[in-house]
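Figure 6 in text form: structure in, sequence out.
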């Protein structure tokens, strides 16, 4: 009962919910990228590698130019370049999208360690601290509200960026002509092509956008939360974001709800010093939640009809 009591006590503290929302925002960015990519018909499990690449180059650029916002831009570009590889291989050459994604994840893990050694002379166990950190934004007046102020209005600036991207993604996908066209190429690309919609352009744009958002999440991780780069620091978060997208049934709002659940699990782990249970058991919490969610939801979720199917003009 001590464990249960500790959990309930923590749930009454604003710091737990503050951390939950922060980690949810970290997962939300790649999850939204996954929604956009898979709504266009391209499976993207390479978000892990794109995040890791973004995290690395955020620190590299920050140390080079001493400007945290240029560092974020560098991370976004790095994630976009990794996504471009996946897009070309999956769309132009019609390779297996799962294999392409796995290959990019492995490549990202290797290239970041290699460059870490080349740039800074560090082995794979080394780490590089960032020079600057993304700022927190204490919203005037609102940040002083008891409990709620700490949770919602004293967050890192990237939390607000993630929430803004959530709103924009929801509006674009379901309230604009562009969103309708994007969804059409993910459901029936042949019909969309017949209607004059360029399937290839939309799929390339969607996949690269997912890379940009994953790179942005990587920057948030390395220069917003950890303030350092460590090899493999994404630690499966790209896969958790993929699970959140599936849990959310390929919708932005659904993905956000899922990331809140996973963010709560990570926040519980971070509070391990306040909970009388093995920290190794707590470290499994986000991944156990992922397994439970996938087991409960995946059979009842239906992806876009053409998701993962390379488009061949004229094919039925």
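Output sequence:
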């Amino acid at each position: 009962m001590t464990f249960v009591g500790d959990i309930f006590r923590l749930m009454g503290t604003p710091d737990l919910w503050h951390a939950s929302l922060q980690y949810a925002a970290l997962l939300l960015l790649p999850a939204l990228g996954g929604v956009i990519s898979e709504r266009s018909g391209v499976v993207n499990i390479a978000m892990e590698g794109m995040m890791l690449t973004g995290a690395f180059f955020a620190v590299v650029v920050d140390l080079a130019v001493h400007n945290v916002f240029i560092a974020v831009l560098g991370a976004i570009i790095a994630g976009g370049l990794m996504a471009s590889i996946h897009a070309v291989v999956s769309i132009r050459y019609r390779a297996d999208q799962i294999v392409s994604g796995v290959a990019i994840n492995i490549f990202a893990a290797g290239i970041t360690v290699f460059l870490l050694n080349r740039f800074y002379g560090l082995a794979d166990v080394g780490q590089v601290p960032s020079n600057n950190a993304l700022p927190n934004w204490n919203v005037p007046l609102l940040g002083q509200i008891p409990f709620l102020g700490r949770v919602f209005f004293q967050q890192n600036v990237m939390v607000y960026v993630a929430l803004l991207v959530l709103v924009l993604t929801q509006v674009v996908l379901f309230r604009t002509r562009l969103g309708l066209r994007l969804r059409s190429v993910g459901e029936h690309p042949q019909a969309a092509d017949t209607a004059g919609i360029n399937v290839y352009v939309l799929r390339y744009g969607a996949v690269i956008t997912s890379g940009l958002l994953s790179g942005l999440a990587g920057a948030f991780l390395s220069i917003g939360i950890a303030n350092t780069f460590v090899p493999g620091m994404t630690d499966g978060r790209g896969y958790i974001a993929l699970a959140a997208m599936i849990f959310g049934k390929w919708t932005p709002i659904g993905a956000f709800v899922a990331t809140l659940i996973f963010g709560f699990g990570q926040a519980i782990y971070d509070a391990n010093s306040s909970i009388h249970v093995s920290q190794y058991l707590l470290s499994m919490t986000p991944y156990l939640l992922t397994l439970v969610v996938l087991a409960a939801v995946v059979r009842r979720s239906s992806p876009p009809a053409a998701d993962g199917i390379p488009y061949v003009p004229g094919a039925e």
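Caption detail: The radius of gyration is 20 Å.
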